[in-house]
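Researcher: I'd like a candidate sequence for this fold, 130 residues long. If you have to choose between options at a position, lean toward the conservative one.
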């Protein structure tokens, strides 16, 4: 769940992106999981789903340990960068995203998909190949 002010805009990286509405300081938390917003679905439950559903989750979800994670808030529009301005971190049992550096208002928020999606390195997600 997004915990800082953001907005969606056209992205120079890909389609729609998530942008900071306010300045964000290095180390500040941007996202924290919430069970009602951040869903985990066993991949086995999706593999027999119609193509349109698999394509949707392939675009907006991430795969880890035979589960698809899907954010129902605008964080699903955060685009990939090999030089991201946010990172995923762990605090005991809970993950969160924080800023790797100061981020200006109006700047696109990015993450490295390799940190959150085991299928990303192959450039071919699990669901499209089923």
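Model: Candidate sequence:
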């Amino acid at each position: 769940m997004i915990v800082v002010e953001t907005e969606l805009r056209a992205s120079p990286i890909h389609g729609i992106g998530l942008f900071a509405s306010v300045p964000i300081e290095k180390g500040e938390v941007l996202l924290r999981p919430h069970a009602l917003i951040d869903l985990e679905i066993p991949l086995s439950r999706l593999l027999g789903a119609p193509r349109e559903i698999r394509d949707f989750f392939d675009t907006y979800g991430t795969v880890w340990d035979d589960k698809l994670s899907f954010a129902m808030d605008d964080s699903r529009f955060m685009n990939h960068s090999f030089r991201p301005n946010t990172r995923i971190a762990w605090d005991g049992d809970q993950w969160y995203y924080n800023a790797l550096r100061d981020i200006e208002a109006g700047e696109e928020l990015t993450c490295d998909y390799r940190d959150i999606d085991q299928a990303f390195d192959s450039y071919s997600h699990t669901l499209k190949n089923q």
